[in-house]
Design goal:
Elements (H helix, E strand, L loop, with lengths): L1 H38 L1 H5 L7 H29 L1 H20 L4 H29 L2 H15 L1 H14 L5 H21 L12 H24 L4 H21 L15 H32 L3 H6 L5 H7 L3 H8 L1 H20 L6 H28 L6 H33 L3 H4 L8 H7 L4 H35 L8
Length: about 500
Amino acid sequence: MIAQTTEPAADTRRRESLVLIVVCLCTILVVGFVAAINLAVPLLAGSSLHPDSSELLWIVDTYVIIFACLVIPGGAIGDRLGRKGALMSGLVLFAGGAAVSALSTSIPAMLSGRVVSGLGAALVLPNCVGVLVHATRPERRRGALAVWGAISGMGGILGNTAGGALLDSGDWQTLFWSVVPLALVCAVAIAVTARASERTFRSLDPAGTLLLVAASVSLLAGIIEAPEKGWLNPVVLTVFGLAVVLAVAWVLVELRVKHPLLDPRLFRAPLLTSASLGMLVTWFGSFGLFYLNASLLQYGRGFSVLGAGFATLPLAIPILVCSRFIPRIVARIGIPATLAAGFLAISAGLFGLSFATKQSFVVYALWLVVLGIGFALSLPTLTTELTAGLPPEQAGVAGGLQSATRELGSALGIAVVGTITVAVFSRHLPSALQAMTPVPRTVIEAVRAAPAQRSRITDAFVTGGSTALQVGAAITLTAGAIVVALAIRRSPHSVE
């Protein structure tokens, strides 16, 4: 009798662990793809596609926009039609889009592939959470979500590392071809390890979905275009205004429908609000760094693409070591204190890195470890809190909301850090380059115009990047304080 009780429990635990491993791999794949493509930009710029600066931007950002704007609907589709099937379908779409991009001989074909991959990622990431929640027993769920939240922070790091290794051959197609078999293997692994969960038989809320997607597209388009056109450009302001109007319309519609995609009233709870804002702030700091780090290492230290990719590995050490201890830390000191320590470490890490470009690599690596401690503390805590803010039957939507805040934070981090870097870089260029019309906005443009001034040009870029990291640290610290204040205001019954 005892053996009959123990064996099923052991089998269940083993299956839960396998599902956790597979959904972590799926997450690393789609998140890492966001970071890896940044390393391919120089190769794409010199490729037979002959993209201009605007087309390069859209090659990078089309995936992010589709990913971010459809990730909440992607989670709702999983809740309605089956999380396991949605996750597997997303992985197949992701692989297909990467193959289209690899075969591209024109910009429209490349962008089409990026769109398809973005659609796949929008199905993958939220349904990773849905599959994990329903594959894990309640007593182990918080720990599993904490591990997944910590490992999700590894996506950008591993994307940089693997991207650097793949692109060291000088062939940008290698990056796209490599993800095709990985995505298909992950789809097979999900088919074998995960069980189908119960479906939520509810409307997919087409009106609310369309309004939310339209508002998200407008907001992200404004964020992406603002660094190039200027934050006060009439087109940018119009797009932001449209985003506000669409967001208000979405709220009004969702308040009236019987089964909203995401009920706005849920954000009255400090739990969901603080967790969502906290996720946005964490990824703001993360991708602000990832956007600049490879360029700072190459221009400031003379690293190769491969070296720049591997140089971020110290960031992963605290995430790997500390993730299993986070639930115990939260239980001991509480959520507000854990988040306060996390945001303080992220801010300190960004600020320290802004001064580390000319210092030894050991100093640089130590500041990365500090930054990693911040991610290790904040990401698992916010993941479990955000998931707890919605009922289990909406696990896919919870994953979608988490993914949406992640991508919005990433886009904001890139936009803000990029804007500051370009502004300071332009002001510190040699006077002859500042007199040009237009003033060069990238190191490559400036070096082409004045090859003899390369050293001063790269110094100007390092100054711009360092200033941007300092501003990013200040924003993270300020916004993090707001998140902690909201967490402190949580009602007692929301602790569990």
